[in-house]
Amino acid sequence: MNIQFNPEDYKCKRPFHVEPTNIVSVNDDMQRVSDEASAMNKRIHYYSRLASPADRALIAPDHVLPAPDEIYVYSPLGTAFKVDSCTDGYGKNSSLVTIFMIWNTMMGTSILSIPWGIKQAGFTSGIILILLMGILTLYCCYRVVKSRQMIPLTDTSNWEFPDVCKYYFGSFGQWSSLLFSMVSLVGAMVVYWVLMSNFLFNTGKYIYNFVHNINVTDIVPGTNGSNKVICPSAASGHPPQNRSVMFSSSNRTGFELFEEWWDKSQTVPFYLIAVLLPLLNLKSPSFFAKFNVLGTVSVVYLVFLVTVKAAHLGIHLEFNWFTENEFFVPEFRILFPQLTGVLTLAFFIHNCVITLLQNNRNQENNVRDLSIAYFLVGLTYLYVGVIIFASFPSPPLSKECIEQNFLDNFPSDDIMSFVARIFLLFQMMTVYPLLGYLARVQLLRQFFGNAYPSLFHVLILNLAIVGAGVAMARFYPNIGGIIRYSGATCGLAFVFVYPSLIYMISLHRAGQLTWPALIIHIFIILLGLANLIAQFLL
């Protein structure tokens, strides 16, 4: 996150102090803010409460404010970013940069499951649901952005959405927001572990076969030709992770030994522990933050891969509105909530959108920029999902063969898929320690007042998180299922319930609550609840 300010205007530096219990310093300096700065901050906050927020008579003079290197911007996940300078209380990021930051933050592993979600919902209903969920989550995100402005007689300029939840719901809002935030973080880390196991397995398999000049044919149905597409789920009698036939004069015993020790679910998830567990225990993840650009590169490359594959495979569509045949699925299917669960996490940015928009140079454009970002995210999901579904070769393969990770529909020796897996594997291995760091900060700081109380505490937490990832990769390596469960759970609070409840309560206190507003927002809450319940029924 690149936040810049104009150093000539010191009035924008209020409030300049974040309590040490809420600051995450990437350098892990325990004395992050001086006692003098903390005391001055308390005096400034005291004087500011003696007058209304609109009255600037009691604002502290410029000479008592700290130097730029002591300014922090607090994020909802417990992180305080240092800022360089400022201008009138807001960042200098242009609308274009703000839009791109939101797009880049929202785009994640969910994009790999969008084609599968469209298959589960049906082609037509899948497209409709992506559009409707995009609009609904955008509206709820808009309510989050506006939630601070509806609190009267209180300076909320430095508040985040969890602070708003605490204002309306007390300690329950504080702890419940922590719980659902942890669900989203741990859910993402579990998905990452499953995907890293998948990508590492296929990458290692490709390298071994290439080095030893081995021609391997997977025992799964698939198309012929240079642009091969496979159907791993059809090989019910032969689990797709390791079953293959070798055509080579090489030592067969060595090949069989490799397959025994290089298994997607039996061994590879455990190999990752040796690399990632030590990284999780580091006090500072600042080194890995430098690789955030890989997320953008990975998404751009996936769009390129999808386009090239579709150009070679062509379009294979047949519209069967309610009946299913051997190769195609109906346009409307009862399994559509599986897609809405995935989309809840795919469009999820509600717990940090205030921070991203607060750095927008033109605050009056926040709603416009947020809407454009959501439009671009929805367009990216639609493009990848529709193109993969439409170009999937049916016949000879059925659309039911589309995997929860669409890269699994390409064999391990496919060079473009190999490059995609390399990109994603390296990106996820750099992001995973950052996610673990955020989980550690939120949980341990709440219970112990310190993000790193001791190596023992951190190790126990990391072992629990890694254990969950290994268990899922071993027994339930279904990223679509994990994404929809975690998305529907954390989305229930941050997307559907809290924004709607806060809006209704604020209108009621102002005497402006109307029946249409009440009915609409209760309906939104019920939709979120139904979305969660449906994940466990279908």
From TrEMBL:
Q: Which reaction does it catalyse?
A: L-leucine(in) = L-leucine(out); L-glutamine(out) = L-glutamine(in); L-asparagine(out) = L-asparagine(in); L-tyrosine(in) = L-tyrosine(out)
Q: Name one GO molecular function term.
A: L-amino acid transmembrane transporter activity
* Keyword Metal-binding among record annotations: yes
- Localisation per UniProt entry: Late endosome membrane; Lysosome membrane
Tell me the ranges covered by the Amino acid transporter transmembrane domain, including all copies. Answer: 94-201, 272-534
The residue ranges crossing the membrane are 96-116, 122-142, 175-195, 266-282, 294-315, 335-357, 369-390, 415-435, 455-476, 482-505, 517-537
Q: Which UniProt keywords apply?
A: Amino-acid transport, Disulfide bond, Endosome, Glycoprotein, Lysosome, Membrane, Metal-binding, Sodium, Transmembrane, Transmembrane helix, Transport
A Pfam family the protein falls into:
Aa_trans
Q: Highest taxon of the source?
A: Eukaryota
How is this protein situated with respect to the membrane? Multi-pass membrane protein
Keyword hit for Transferase: no
Q: What are its GO cellular component terms?
A: late endosome membrane; lysosomal membrane
Tell me which family the UniProt entry assigns to this protein: Belongs to the amino acid/polyamine transporter 2 family. SLC38A9 subfamily.
Stated name of the protein: Neutral amino acid transporter 9
Native organism: Cnemophilus loriae
